[in-house]
Amino acid sequence: MTKIEKIVLSYSGGLDTSIILKWLQETYGCEVVTFTADLGQGEELEPARAKAEMAGVKDIRIVDLREEFVSDFVFPMLRANALYEGQYLLGSSIARPLIAQRLVDIAREVGADAIAHGATGKGNDQIRFELAVNALDPSIKVIAPWRQWNIRSRMQLLEYAEKHHIPVPSDKRGEAPFSIDANLLHTSTEGKILENPAEVAPDHVYQRTVDPVDAPDAPEIITIGFERGDPVSVNGKAMTPAALLTELNGLGGRHGVGRLDLVENRFIGMKSRGIYETPGGTILLSAHRGIESITLDRVAAHLKDEIMPRYAELIYNGFWFAPEREMLQALIDHSQAFVSGEVTLRLYKGSASVISRASPFSLYSADLVTFEESTIAFDHHDAEGFIRLNGLRLRSWAARNGR
Ligand code: ARG
Q1: 261-293 pLDDT, tens per residue?
Q2: Which of 202, 312, 314, 388 is the most buried (most CB within 10 A)?
Q3: Does 342 lie in the same domain as 285?
Q4: Is the pTM above the cut of 0.90?
Q5: Residue 366: inside a domain, yes or no?
């Protein structure tokens, strides 16, 4: 085994990473620095400090990354209207590059030669962490205990905890819990009964949205302001990125917006079924498409839509820090120069529908499109020629086919 001097561990304070912490200290006999990121997962983070202290960690880092997460990762992704496989808003995928970036920063600062994470060998997250480290600092080694140790079952994991006096909360003693990942953008839930895609997900899986059936009978009207492609206000009130997303999560959650039950294709090769709740993100996607509908040129908008699946896939696959993502991002960002204005939506029993939009930079011309008399010169005969020329090849084709 290679000699490791110092490790920075991505530490949640949960049972799995507490066991990993102990295992690293034992296996490598070196100092472990813990890093816990507040990404808006809605969990108390101070218990993580207490647990790390108890495990003898001297350098404990707990950092609030909520604003950075939303402004530098979530919003750039929303500018692209990114959806993986047509539906997934990439809530877990987009958080990994930020965590990896911070792990690398801390490793450099404290002179650590390795970082460690608690992602398993079957998932996407390990790929995202490690590709990011590859792109940011290839000299840093990555330790993935789930791929290295010989703990193979939940039972063995609990035995290890018992043996090393790691407290196991009573609700963690029984069968394995759901695998949950939460941050300001979403909550994802996988595992257990959800592993059978033919089973309907039980209601208790949902954590931050009500069942649309139980949502208020009265719709709620909200207005979102955009500047250069990014949301900046809700109902006329300017907000920071994290505050804005938090506000929309509350509104969307109450109206049952943003639930998704999905079978997706993991990069590593298997299909998996998960439940996603992305209330604020779902509202923002509708709203952003709403403001783009009046501010983007048709061909520019269609080009964006063409590259979107590619862009979403590379975020899903962990290539955030790759040159192709930066190239596509530059194109997307360039398109947003005039994507400013206001969009009004109606939240109602699981839906977030755009009901009006306005922009000082609108390309929409009522005068041009109107059925009534117009002041703009539009010669209807031009349309005749337009269709005749576009139909030229179709007439040849039909004649050849003997129609
Ligand atoms: N399947 C989703 C993705 O790959 C969610 C992963 C959630 N991660 C977790 N550790 N539970 O993006």
Answers
A1: 999 999 999 999 999 999 999 999 999 999 999
A2: 312
A3: yes
A4: yes
A5: no
